[in-house]
Amino acid sequence: MIDHLGVTVRDLARARAFYEAALTPLGIAVQMEVTEEMTGGHGAHLGFGTPGKPFFWIGTGKAAQGGVHVAFAAPDRATVDSFHAAALAAGGRDNGAPGLRPEYHPDYYGAFVFDPDGNNIEAVCHTPE
């Protein structure tokens, strides 16, 4: 199951206005804002979704090499670890070792790899342990 999807935008304010208007009829609204400081200089991001679950992200910063960020839901942290190891063994490039990302929420445990085309692929678990 896909957990969330992210796209890079040039103008966050303009994109926010567009998506807020376009997604409101679908019951989708901004659920989370992440500043550039929170990402360590990797752009500012807005997470759209339903209460408590942002699943469509827009953000500034470097354009994704392949243009897409996809995150797959994992049932536990061990599966995130296995995803990362398997992706690297299959020729992926590391883009963030398995670990907690408390800037998103206290139990956010994810791992990131670039696929052969440069797309940013993630596995994430949202549960403790």
UniProtKB/TrEMBL annotation:
It comes from the Bacteria. Transmembrane segments: none annotated. Pfam families: Glyoxalase. Residues 1-126 form the VOC domain. PROSITE patterns: VOC. This is Glyoxalase. The lineage of its organism: Bacteria, Pseudomonadati, Pseudomonadota, Alphaproteobacteria, Rhodobacterales.
